[in-house]
Structure formats: C-alpha cells, structure tokens
Design goal:
- The chain starts with a helix and ends in a 5-residue tail after the last helix.
- With about 200 residues, it is mainly alpha-helical.
- It has one domain.
- α3 packs antiparallel against α4, α3 packs antiparallel against α6 and α5 runs antiparallel to α6.
- The chain is about 75% helix and about 0% strand.
- The protein has six helices and no strands.
- This is Cytochrome b561 domain-containing protein.
- Keywords: Membrane, Signal, Transmembrane, Transmembrane helix.
- It comes from Runella defluvii.
Length: about 200
C-alpha cells in the first residue's frame, strides 16, 4: 500500500511538471498562431469544426475575424488550463480507484464496492470534462510537423478513451459474469498506463 502511494505521488509530481511543459508548448503555439496571416487551419477535428469552423455554431456569436480569433486563443488557453487540472484530478481518482479495486479482488466487501463505485463516477466525470475541454477548444492555426509530444499525447488519448469505455462496459457486466474480472482489471490497468503516459510524454520534447 505504501509503495503504491509513493508511486502515485511520484507520478503526480512528474505529471505536474509535464503539465508545465504542456503549458509552455501551448503558449508557443498561440504566439505563433497570432502571427499567422491565416485565420483557421486547413484541418480541424470534427468537434472543433462543428463549433469553431467557418460555419460553426459559435460563428453566430463570434464571426470569423482576426479580433475574434485573438479572443478564441484566450478561450483556448483557459480551456486547456481546465483540461490540465481536470486531468490531474482524474489521474488521482484513477489511482485511488485502482487501490480500492485491488483490495476488492483480495477481500470483497460492500463498503469497498460502494467506495469503488463512487470513485468510478468521479473518474468518469473528471475524464469527460478533461476530454471535452480538449475536443471543443478553438483550434490553433500552427500545427507542428513531424513527430511531437502533442501527437503522441493524442495517440495515447485514443488508447485510454477506448480503455475507459471498455472498463465501464466490463465493470457493469461483472456482477452477471464474474469471469470477466481479469479482463476488467487488465483493461483498467492499460487505461491508467496510457493515461499516465499521455501526461508524462510532455517531459520528453
């Protein structure tokens, strides 16, 4: 138990440092975008295009012009600050949920199950908020070519997104089919590993 807590503390400390690196990268992208003569990038993810594209929903209130784009970059920075904070809280919840889940496998009790479910709800809420802030933030104009920490971060995000879905689906089926427990645990550990790596990757730029 003590080793798990020490490992979690180490990961949280490293994650906080990595988030500072992410903030630095974001600020550089915003600065470069402000100097670009182009208002919108050629490629945007579906959620960003739906909100912030040429005919996005937000264009009813914020027409596409340079002044509004500067305001959007401020919104982007705020949303990514929330993304970072929610991500760290979600990671802490994942670690706590993993500790409680491990105890449940060894010594099941209704109290542990209730705690595990409460943590699961908190993690799901935190994860949804974290993902929403990233997927709906106004897009930067400058996207770095080639290999980058941000691209690895996005690839790992796909892994832990699928893992979150799988963990929740298997978790709800365990009561009817206890044989799914090993698969649930394996998917959960993979999800936490991918989520942790997606944060720590910003230490290596």
């Amino acid at each position: 138990m003590r080793k798990v807590l020490l490992l979690a503390l180490l990961c949280l400390t490293s994650s906080a440092y990595a988030q500072l690196s992410l903030t630095d990268t974001l600020l550089v992208d915003i600065k470069d975008s402000l100097q670009s003569p182009v208002l919108l990038p050629q490629k945007m993810i579906f959620t960003q295009k739906m909100l912030w594209g040429h005919h996005g929903l937000m264009r009813h209130w914020m027409p596409l012009n340079r002044q509004n784009r500067q305001q959007e970059f401020k919104i982007r920075r705020t949303m990514f600050n929330i993304h970072q904070a929610a991500g760290l809280l979600t990671f802490a919840g994942m670690v706590a949920q993993g500790v409680v889940g491990g105890k449940m496998y060894k010594n099941y009790s209704d109290d542990l199950r209730a705690t595990h479910r409460a943590l699961a709800k908190g993690v799901n809420i935190g994860y949804t908020l974290t993902a929403t802030m990233a997927l709906t933030a106004p897009s930067a104009i400058v996207h770095r070519k080639g290999f980058s920490s941000a691209k690895v971060h996005r690839m790992l995000a796909m892994v832990h997104l699928l893992g979150m879905i799988g963990t929740n689906v298997l978790g709800h089926q365990i009561s009817k089919n206890p044989e799914l427990k090993p698969y649930h645990r394996a998917v959960a550990y993979t999800t936490v590993g991918a989520f942790t790596a997606s944060i720590l990757v910003f230490q290596f730029r």
